[in-house]
Amino acid sequence: MNDWFEREKRVFIQFFNRYPLMIERGEGCWLYDAENKRFLDLVAGIACISVGHGNEYVNSRIKEQLDRLVHVSNLFYTRPQIELAEKLKTLTALDRFFFTNSGTESVEGALKIARKVTGKKRFVSFVNDFHGRTMGALSVTWKEKFRKPFEPLISPVEFAKFNSIESLEDAVDKDTTAVIVELIQGEAGVFPARRDFVKRIFELKDEFEFLVIFDEIQTGFGRVGEWFAKDIYGFQPDIITLAKSMGNGFPVGAIGISEEIHGGIESGDHGSTFGGNPLACTASLATIEYIEKKNLVENSRKMGERFRKGLEKLDFVREVRGHGLMIGVDVGDAKSLHEHLMKNGILVNATSERDIRIIPPLTISSDEVDFALRVMESWKSKENQ
Ligand SMILES: Cc1ncc(COP(=O)(O)O)c(C=O)c1O
């Protein structure tokens, strides 16, 4: 495989440090490398593969649509796009949708809508929030390493402390156009917002008349044991951003807004050539149908609970966070555990020196969860050796 890795080094822009693994195919929760060694996939393409690799139902729908019609642009009507918007309306209780090709694009659109509708400029985001890598989304992303080389970004943006009501109160005022928040911070390592903190956002919204944007790009479509993280908290945003597992790995995202703010939108305010093409919308419709048919939101809740209970019993585990199948674990030495798992056929994602993130397909079975727990148990952190 080394020659392939060297070829990549020569021709690819080196933004990513990859694991030395060439993945050839996937089946359910399993990935297979070039030597046909199999790995239990607890990464799921960074929380994208919701209904499993090689899902026959979703793939057959995509193939059917591929032969019928791939793309016509938003200058024309296509059925899958309208059906998907109707489906999302039912699932999210938001009213109107526009489709994108990625998470960061959904955030870009959301920020534009907020400014257009409120006429105000100032965004509030949070320490450790991640919203994407394009200029607008990057502006509301916390990590300075990601932001600094690309300044000036859009401004003003204020970063309040996550879960600090005092810091939130200091950050918002009458010039705030929108507060954008991940209800469960994903890239940071799975850190859920406190309910009273979310409640305070909405009280301040009423006082200062800003919009609330829930970035549910990572938490959406059953990942957290409910259809959306907002269903755990019981609050309704003005704008929701979606992507990732919406198409089981097929690139598709969405911006959803309330009818109330739609009044401030004019034709021409935003656009996309590929966004909402019939192929992507069909992939998403089929994914959602499969989640519904197989009760995968419930499976996410049950398997997540099983995982968390098992993890809490492991003596090296210091903290287990999250909801459903979005789990962050402080294991002490994430690099060493990661190596142990990979050697023993399990892929996870280390989000810091101490933490791993577990975000498998929602189809994961109890046998697969137990297998992962057994392999984890066989690892001893350096301190315990
Ligand atoms: C919460 C959140 N928002 C936005 C993004 C950006 O999505 P994409 O990588 O599809 O642009 C991500 C990606 O990790 C995310 O987790």
- Give the amount of beta strand, in percent: 15-25%
Q: What is the assigned CATH homologous superfamily of one domain?
A: Type I PLP-dependent aspartate aminotransferase-like (Major domain)
Which residues sit in consecutive blocks of at least 5 with pLDDT less than 50? Answer: none
Please provide the count of β strands: 17
Name every ligand kind in the structure: pyridoxal-5'-phosphate
Helix content: 25-40%
Q: Number of DSSP helices?
A: 15
Instruction: Determine the structural class based on helices, strands and strand pairing.
Output: alpha/beta
Principal-axes geometry comes out as globular
Q: What is the terminal separation in angstroms?
A: 33 Å
Computed Rg: 21 Å
Mean pLDDT across all amino acids: 97
